[in-house]
Backbone:
């Protein structure tokens, strides 16, 4: 259902046109002035709608969420999911009002509609990005996922969303089907592989690291090649952050955990102990059998007698 009926649009535009024409402007100047004034009024209305949705609606929902015992609704507020959702409404209103504003310039309607369509795609993309962040924070609070590389999967989803948004924006700007863009994209796949090489390697490596349980967040690892010796604090698509024992941060490429060798002390920590290897030099000439007198003397030592067996 359209926000403004065509008859209402015509009446509003005609009334504004007649009002400005009474001031003595020419026909062309009257049309331009009408378009400018209606554009300013639209901006004010859109700002008012966005302000009311953010301040009034979000205030009501925030108070309701504050009383809720569930955690995910708090994360929705934290990651501004509702705020990004409210930005979609003014864009839809603008899309409906454009035919009214540019009624005197029909050639401009198509360009203005393309701009609003692009804005709508961006708003929806930012909304999905905020939703993914909410799920990431929710899974981080779950013990089953606390040591998994959730950031890697989030970044892959973000890349996918921005890729789809990019295709839609290209389709809107050129007026061509998204399939046409994908077909031409196949010819440039070699360039894309080069540009996103690190992202692809990091994504594959993060899956291997997770499935093979090679590294978890919180593990103590040692990687001499990169000067890393400390606790893993973050595993994302491109890098792994290790906090060394001197509180410095070492950044390691994610795919290096698969291609290079490193030491993980998780087994030692889970065992509750640590084996230490030390070298002891023994002179060969000092080794001999004990005499009977030495044996009798050692028997007097309770620590030796306990392990002595003849």
Residues:
């Amino acid at each position: 259902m359209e926000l403004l009926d065509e008859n209402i649009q015509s009446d509003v535009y005609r009334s504004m046109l007649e009002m400005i024409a009474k001031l003595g402007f020419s026909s062309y100047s009257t049309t331009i002035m009408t378009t400018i004034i209606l554009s300013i009024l639209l901006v004010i209305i859109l700002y008012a709608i966005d302000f009311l949705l953010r301040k009034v609606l979000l205030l009501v929902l925030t108070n309701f969420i504050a009383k809720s015992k569930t955690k995910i609704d708090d994360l929705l507020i934290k990651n501004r999911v509702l705020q990004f959702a409210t930005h979609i409404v003014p864009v839809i209103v603008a899309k409906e009002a454009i035919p009214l504003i540019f009624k005197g310039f029909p050639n401009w309607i198509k360009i203005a509609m393309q701009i609003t369509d692009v804005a709508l795609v961006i708003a929806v993309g930012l909304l999905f990005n905020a939703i993914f962040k909410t799920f990431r924070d929710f899974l981080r609070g779950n013990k089953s996922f606390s040591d998994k590389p959730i950031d890697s999967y989030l970044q892959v989803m973000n890349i996918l969303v921005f890729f789809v948004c990019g295709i839609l924006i290209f389709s809107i700007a050129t007026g061509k089907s998204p399939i046409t863009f994908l077909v031409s994209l196949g010819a440039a796949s070699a360039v894309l592989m080069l540009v996103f090489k690190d992202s692809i390697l990091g994504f594959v490596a993060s899956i291997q690291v997770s499935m093979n349980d090679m590294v978890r967040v919180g593990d103590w690892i040692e990687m001499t090649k990169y000067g890393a010796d400390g606790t893993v604090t973050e595993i994302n698509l491109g890098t792994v952050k290790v906090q060394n024992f001197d509180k410095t941060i070492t950044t390691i490429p994610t795919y290096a955990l698969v291609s290079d060798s490193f030491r993980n002390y998780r087994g030692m920590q889970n065992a509750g102990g640590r084996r230490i290897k030390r070298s002891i030099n023994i002179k060969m000439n000092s080794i001999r059998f004990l005499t009977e007198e030495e044996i009798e003397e050692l028997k007097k030592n309770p620590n030796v007698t306990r392990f002595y067996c003849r």
Remarks:
- Strands lie at 220-223, 228-235, 239-244, 249-253, 263-264.
- The chain has 14 helices and five strands.
- Confidence is low (pLDDT under 50) at residues 1-9.
- The first strand starts at residue 220 and ends at 223.
